[in-house]
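batch job 7 of whatever, protein = UDP-N-acetylmuramoylalanine--D-glutamate ligase
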Amino acid sequence: MKRLVILGGGESGVGTAVLGKKQGYDVFVSDAGEISAVKKEILTQHEIEFEEAKHSNEQIFSADIVMKSPGIPDSVQLVKELKAKNIPVISEIEFASRYTNATIIGITGSNGKTTTTALTHYILKNEVNAVMAGNIGDSFAMSVAIESPDYYVLELSSFQLDGIKAFKPHIAVITNITPDHLDRYNNNFEEYIAAKFRITMNQDENDFLIYDGDDPVITDWISSHTIKAKQLPFSLTKTIEEGAYVTNNTININLKNKSFVMPTINLGLQGNHNVKNAMAASTVAKLLDIRKQTIRESMEHFQGVEHRLETVLKINHVQYINDSKATNVNATFYALDSMLSDTVWIVGGVDKGNDYDELLPLVREKVKAIVCLGVDNTKLMNAFSPCVDLMIETQSMSEAVKIAYKIAERGDNVLLSPACASFDLYENYEDRGNQFKQAVRSL
């Protein structure tokens, strides 16, 4: 019996443990921190051995294969030692993909990947047996363990792609690439770009790569690297022979023998970034022969994802907006750009090597006050204090919301769009967004 050791007892780790057990492995889970009560319950239920608050060498180095949770970087000493001993270290995505025959649609990008994944799944599920997993919903491994759909729509982070060897989506989507997670990639943007493009590394000429043809980072990389998959760009600015583009406020999709048009005004989600998400999702749907009427109706009715520019409440004519999922500068750029009235902006968290320069013109134009929400706000204070008259530091969500409430006037927005990771004060961006909503409802 082969021994599978799993580093990390979170969503990916526990999903892999359940799938590994089902596939006949001797499974052991090791987490340097604490494993949540819910996850422990699942492990116990499946009679899977685990340890927490430590890594025992004798347990770990007896592995035939190790699955490393995406949050653990390759630079960790334990991972280096495993590789030195020639023990294969893979990602959950790689492991799970070995046990499904479903057609895989893999979606990555710095921003827009959650919305594009959710929208693609929303369209497909109306006609085919499709499941959404990965960085959204259940882990891919847990899903493979408990269900067997015909299609998987996977949201994939660069961390998840770092550990793939043979993983090969039939359709890959790269929504865009902007600097993010540079702390993980030795502050080297090129390394991060290469991680994103791993999504297409095993594809061949029977597969498809859909990407933003307006994104200079993506187009530069493609022009200097060999890609075997059929390339289908989408663009807001130029006419595309095979792919998707916009003319006269209408989305046009041209594929071999297949076409599709839809006015952008009919989209359930507005804004240029959502037009791009819609082009990516509908290109996938056309490749899979989903009916035009289904695509149109789905895109008209789709209302977006939680924690992404989610309107919470209007109080005293002030709109409160939860964009907790904006964990990088580019995502916050979209959020600020979409604000149509004066905005009190709640920002901050764990800085991932952010460069705030691109936000300065928008902040000058749209933001009347900034409420900082992080353990260390020095960099934010230095970047934005010349742009706004009022900047206030806070240490809790309820305090931040109460201060925003006092500052905001009739017709204003209060926007939580942190541009940073959440791990200094919260479990994850969902926890941060839920605390924001709770604080707003408690006003």
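notes: The mean pLDDT is 93.
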